[in-house]
Amino acid sequence: MTIEPATEPGNGGALRLPRARVVPLSVPPASYTAAIERYLTGAGIAKSSARIYRISLTTWGWMLAGEPAPTGPARRGAKPPVFPVTAIDDPALPEALAELAAARADEMDADTVNRELSIARKAIGWWQCQGWIMSDPTIGIERRPAPPDRTKSLAENQIAALWRLDVALREKTFWKMLYESAARAEEVLCLNVEDLYPQDKRGRITAKGGATEWIHWQSGTAQLLPRLIARRTHGPLFLTDRKAPAGTPTLDVCPETGRARLSYRRAEEIFEENTRLLANPLASPEGIEDLDGWTLHRLRHSALTHDAEGGTSTPMLLARSRHASVRSLERYARPGVDAVARHVAERDSAARRRR
User: 115, 146 in Cβ contact below 8 A?
Assistant: First the structure.
């Protein structure tokens, strides 16, 4: 950083407060997209988080360019605008960005909005430290108040109905692994074939902060995995149906098939579409287009809730969920309808006498 002394015009040559100028630590990248990649590698973002960061920062790219970010099906295959990272210093950007962010926030849930805002601010702060930009156009954009977690676990008969669905092997394996391991969908999608230890029914993941952790599954997943992997030895475990488009990061491409890693967005879409009738059992198949199915998170939530209902100890629940705080388990300590029904029936003295 250099300091440039200057005199105040019309003030007898008196010195005014010097202004600091940040000297870039390296040559600024040619584009915003390149700046994203420099950030992900230079800031040491964990592999399990890099995909989510890249998607969020790409979404912000539209808004930083003054355009609304595409949502829903329109987002698939959309090409982000190309602009230099220095355009972030445009003094007119904060006002326009606030309007675009507010419009997007009206269409998204608060958790997603807040996560994307946090990711953008981390990247912008890192770019500022490199001396590539000076300002943060997100200042003034407030986090949205997130509603309390009211996610309800699926009943055991709903889980059984899920396994009976006629879906592809990839989906069967993915859903089974999510439920049996109680892992986060993002973590499972980041698994590579070389991260698996099939004989031990476990897999190695990179958690938040870069720590190495393990997820464990049961026989249902163990029976499906060999068919899914086939003869592959390296690369993403869960793949798309098509070849990876040009420009896909090498880590997200299978070296043997050329297909890309399945994205969270696409995995969520597939699960939601296939569970609409299960979530709305009274609806007709012809009228489910406007109805909502289940979310992937409900599989993790259900697994931990069913563990709690079965009497699993608090230390084991902490280990399974990989939460650091006991307080975080409160959301899972809500017995479902079936568990409450069993509890009441087991304590029905009149029924015991009849038996």
Answer: no
- Determine the Cα–Cα distance for residues 109 and 219; give it in Å rounded to an integer: 35
Contact of 99 with 93, CB cutoff 8 Å: no
CA–CA dist 136, 95 (Å, integer): 12
Q: In terms of C-beta distances under 8 Å and separation of at least 24 residues, what long-range contacts does 215-222 make, across chains too?
A: 215/177, 215/181, 215/182, 215/183, 215/187, 215/188, 216/180, 216/181, 217/176, 217/177, 217/180, 217/181, 218/180, 220/163, 220/176, 220/180, 221/173, 221/176, 221/177, 221/180, 221/181, 222/198
Q: Do 101 and 41 touch, CB atoms closer than 8 A?
A: no
**Strand, coil or helix: 139:** coil
d(CA 324, CA 321): 9
Judge contact between 185 and 141, C-beta under 8 A: no
CA–CA dist 299, 276 (Å, integer): 15
Tell me how far the alpha carbon of residue 248 is from its chain's centroid: 18
Is the pLDDT at 13 greater than 70? The verdict is no
Nearest-angstrom CA–CA distance, 86 and 133? 6
User: Which tokens belong to 244?
Assistant: 């990876």
> For residue range 288-326, what is the model confidence (pLDDT) as tens digits?
777 889 999 999 999 999 998 888 888 898 888 888 777
- Give the type of residue at 41: T
List of residues 6+ apart from 235 with CB closer than 8 A: 192, 193, 253, 254, 255, 256, 257
CA torsion through residues 95, 98, 102, 104, sign:
positive
pTM above 0.85, yes or no: no
Give the span between the Cα atoms of 43 and 122, in whole angstroms. 10
Say if CB 262 and CB 190 are below 8 A apart.
Answer: no
